[in-house]
Amino acid sequence: MADGFEGMIAEARDFFTRLRADNTRDFFEANKATYTDRVRKPAELLADLFAEDLGRATGAAHGPKVFRIHRDVRFSADKTPYKEHLHILWSRPGAAVAPAWFFGVSPDYLLLGMGVMDLEKETLARFRRMVDKEGDDLTDAMEAAAHKGVTLSDWGPEPLKRVPKPWDEGHPHADLLRRKAFAVHAPLPEGWEARGLLPSMTALLPPMLPVWRILDGAFRP
Fold first, then answer.
1. pLDDT (tens digit, 9 = 90+) per residue, 141-169?
2. Nearest Cα residue to 129 out of 218, 212, 220
3. CA 102 to each of CA 23, 96, 176, 209, 213: distance values in angstroms, whole numbers, following the listed order
4. What are phi and psi of 113, to 5 degrees?
5. Taking a C-beta distance cutoff of 8 angstroms, is the pair 152, 197 a contact?
6. What residues make up the domain containing 176?
7. pTM passes above 0.90
8. CATH number for the domain that contains residue 88
9. HSE of 208 in the Cβ direction (CA atoms, 13 Å)?
10. Number of structural domains, the chain?
């Protein structure tokens, strides 16, 4: 049954649609109360509740983070001040690098995903070693998840054009070795409103868990 969060999603999509048309400080300040009361605060409650579901599903504690709406424009050519989406992240407290779960809502998408982003140096090397040794298991888990609507995400840095050394271009998992980030995601299914947002998100966990376990094992100390 509906759990009340469908109202937050409707409010978020309406707010971000209007923000997209007028991404200015004047618009945001005039509508800040709507964003805070009808989007941000319900999202914080959703983040706390889903953290509990993640803990039960994975057997590992996850801390939530609702990303701020303000964009960091210091090094960006795009100077629009506000993000036109709501993103929430759940990660293991104290873990330097570990697969994290994320939720996103915008006028264009409503999805749940999981992965490791912005890998570099030693963490990237560990990911590549995992792909080399456990690539078959990872792709099997990804293929099983695909039957439930889970797809490989293109979020994160662009993949390399060539397979990194010491592996060659003929490696069976060359496409994964070229990646500098790895994530999978799935849209919430049609009719999620009747089931409720939180139960619908939780129902997407089982197909992603085998992928999460492989990634989590690769980054455990």
1. 999 999 999 999 998 899 999 999 999 99
2. 218
3. 24, 17, 21, 14, 16
4. -145, 180
5. no
6. 5-219
7. yes
8. 3.30.930.20
9. 29
10. 1
